[in-house]
Design brief:
Bound molecules: zinc ion
CATH topology of the largest domain: Alpha-lytic protease prodomain-like
Helix content: 55-70%
Structural class: mainly alpha
Shape: flat
CATH class of the largest domain: Mainly Alpha
Strand content: 5-15%
CATH superfamily of the largest domain: Cation efflux protein transmembrane domain
Number of domains: 3
């Protein structure tokens, strides 16, 4: 790439020193300030410098704060419990115990990895790693997710094997091994509950331990049931639920970690509000090219351009100090980099033009030309980029309600009569015999969960995509059997074979369900995506 070095048109001034810019045609600019060293000395993220003004109100909670012995106890417990449970699970032929153990072991690796990451993260910045090593914790979290997903695949595979060839589960061993989990997790929860009232992080850990405690209770109840009744299918069903629970946790960790790696704006920061707060300060004509991003799970970095009138650098320093203090206390931004200018360096949009979508930039151009013609250049009336939550029309909500009710209604009869539904699946003559019982057991529950997700608007693009996939699979099966002339009932809503055999009307009925499904997929996947990132008013 051919980059032309040139001085900044606005004569950009950072807090201490003049910045030089590398311009790349008109694709915006990269900001390199000469005096990063001086900046770090005075920046408020430097605790010593900041505490001169105010003290005693910065609560950082890290592994650091939990005492060493308590950490050791937690680590020890979370290692002993899963070891006992895995051994017992193997003897008792219980998949539920093994999956409960997997979760408990994952808690052990999570604590261990975050501790190791914390030790690595304590290493300060170097010339090679100017941000330090604080993102090591994100790497650790992702590593843990990979391990857990692997474990879940193992559990699900084992559960499927159990569905295909059920084994006798020893209820007695399950009860005793689950007791170990109950005592261990209960003790951990009790250790944490005293501090949980005062500290959000510890409260989160406490609630997690409470959840683990309840999981072990459910496993124990299944052991009691299997002790008296030979309902051994209960065991793989339970292990699937626990695996799904683990995967849900993985998804949450994965989402928050990738957000940090993508330099996404922290969810508690409203960039428009920051912009508003900045331009409302006396002496600031305009604020543009705002970036806010987390370096790790604590601490927020921030950079922006500020247009001010030409003045002494010492005046700018006073202004800068009050800005830093304001955005730290109002938004928790602890590492701001401010670039002061006496005139706009670009088009003055809230979002940095280097990263703006190409199609949208033309509109910004037009808008800006209008505002320049009006003579508003450099004032607060810049075209603003809007960041807002997804908004949907009422059609979207009707579509998901209708589809949700259809799915739930379809699932109920099959859940009540699994054997009759297995017969219906068998009649389709599509699946190998070994998969028929499994399908008949899982499919109705999948429909029920999907229906609930649709009605409560949960996990949205995923829910709509799975719904439409299911509908298409059903239609393909019906179409296939119509074309080869099989005279069977469809089994969509009723497991009663007297219901009558399926015909073209069945196909048309199922096809009509596709209409809301397609609409949902389209709305949840493609609509509003652009608006989320960049929109002009
Ligand atoms: Zn302060
Ligand atoms: Zn846990
Ligand atoms: Zn600028
Ligand atoms: Zn930028």
């Amino acid at each position: 790439m051919d980059r032309k070095r040139s001085s900044h048109p606005g004569g950009g001034v950072t807090e201490k020193g003049i910045s030089t810019m590398i311009h790349e045609e008109d694709k915006g600019c990269e900001h390199i300030s000469v005096s990063e060293k001086e900046f770090f000395k005075t920046a408020p993220h430097n605790e010593a410098g900041h505490s001169e003004q105010c003290s005693g109100h910065h609560h950082h909670v890290d592994v650091e704060e939990t005492s060493g012995t308590r950490l050791l106890i937690t680590l020890g417990l979370n290692l002993i419990i899963p070891v006992i449970q895995v051994i017992a699970g193997t003897f008792a032929h219980s998949m539920a115990l093994v999956s409960d153990a997997t979760h408990n072991f994952s808690d052990f690796t999570a604590v261990l990895l975050s501790y190791i990451a914390y030790r690595i993260g304590r290493k300060g910045a170097s010339l090679q790693n100017t941000f330090g090593y604080r993102r090591a914790e994100i790497m650790a979290a992702l590593l843990n997710v990979i391990i857990l997903v692997g474990a879940c695949i193992f559990i699900l595979y084992g559960a499927i094997q159990r569905f295909l060839s059920p084994e006798v589960v020893s209820g007695k061993i399950v009860i005793w091994a689950a007791m170990v989990g109950i005592v261990g997790n209960g003790f951990s929860a009790w250790l944490l509950h005293r501090d949980a009232k005062h500290n959000l992080n510890i409260k989160g850990a406490f609630l997690h331990m409470l959840g683990d405690f309840l999981t072990s209770v459910v496993v124990m109840i299944s052991g009691i049931v299997m002790f008296y009744r030979p309902w051994y299918w209960l065991d793989p069903v339970l292990s699937v639920f626990i695996a799904v629970f683990i995967l849900k946790n993985c998804w949450d960790i994965f989402k928050s970690s990738t957000k940090i790696l993508m330099n996404a704006t922290p969810s508690d920061i409203d960039l428009e509000a920051v912009h508003e707060a900045l331009v409302s300060i006396d002496g600031i004509k305009s604020a543009h090219y705002l970036h806010a991003w987390p370096v790790s799970s604590s601490g927020i970095s921030f950079s922006c351009h500020l247009v001010v009138k030409d003045q002494m650098l010492t005046e700018i320093e006073k202004l800068s100090k009050s800005i830093r203090h304001m955005i730290f206390h109002k938004f928790g931004i602890d590492h701001p980099v401010l670039q002061f200018e006496t005139e706009l360096c670009g088009r003055g949009t809230l979002l940095c033009e280097t990263f703006a979508a190409k199609t949208k930039r033309k509109k910004v151009d037009q808008q800006n030309r209008i505002s320049i013609n009006k003579g508003n250049n450099g004032s607060n009336d810049q075209p603003k980029a809007k960041i807002g939550p997804k908004t949907y029309g009422y059609l979207y909500h009707i579509a998901r309600m209708v589809l949700g009710v259809i799915f739930i209604y379809a699932s109920l009869d099959k859940i009540i009569h699994p054997q009759a539904f297995a017969q219906a699946v068998f009649n389709y003559q599509l699946l190998p015999d070994s998969f028929i019982n499994l399908t008949a057991l899982i499919l109705p529950w999948l429909e029920l969960i999907l229906g609930c997700c649709l009605i409560f608007n949960r996990w949205m693009p995923g829910t709509s995509v799975i719904s439409i996939t299911l509908l298409i699979v059903f239609m393909a099966a019906i179409l296939f059997n119509l074309s080869r002339g099989l005279d069977i009932s469809c089994g969509c809503f009723s497991t009663n074979p007297e219901e009558g055999s399926m015909n073209r009307l069945t196909l048309i009925r199922d096809a009509s369900f596709l209409i809301p499904a397609i609409y949902l997929v389209f709305m949840s996947l493609f609509k509003n995506n652009g608006k989320n990132q960049f929109e002009e008013i």
